[in-house]
Amino acid sequence: xxxxxxxxxxxxxxxxxxxxxxxxxxxxxxxxxxxxxxxxxxxxxxxxxxxxxxxxxxxxxxxxxxxxxxxxxxxxxxxxxxxxxxxxxxxxxxxxxxxxxxxxxxxxxxxxxxxxxxxxxxxxxxxxxxxxxxxxxxxxxxxxxxxxxxxxxxxxxxxxxxxxxxxxxxxxxxxx
Length: 176
What we know:
This protein has 9 helices and no strands.
């Protein structure tokens, strides 16, 4: 009787390396503490990388998915950097916008929803300021009001406040 190999023909040293990949992951979170404020939530969300595309994740074995997620920050950068970088492609800004639109819709009213909405609008602002493209169906008038309001939020970092202020000015040029 022939036993199927569960190592996929990998040598011992490569197997050992694969087994060590998850060792440095942080332990599971402890019991929930007090709710984080907007500033710390925003900092956390801006430091995130975009998640793997769902179709790609389904094709990869779980161990490779974890490796890809770990390496992705080095490939594409975190949301905060991508939002203020003029070279960020529109497809990436659309992905950030769509992800945070879903997060805002799914979140309960409060800081998490505010943070998701802020990043959603920041992605729209980045496309408008850096590419002169409106990546939403929202009117320039509606966007101008949202950008003006958000740019005054003291919990946003200065680079996002500046981006939102620039987007507000751009929208005013289109409003009659």
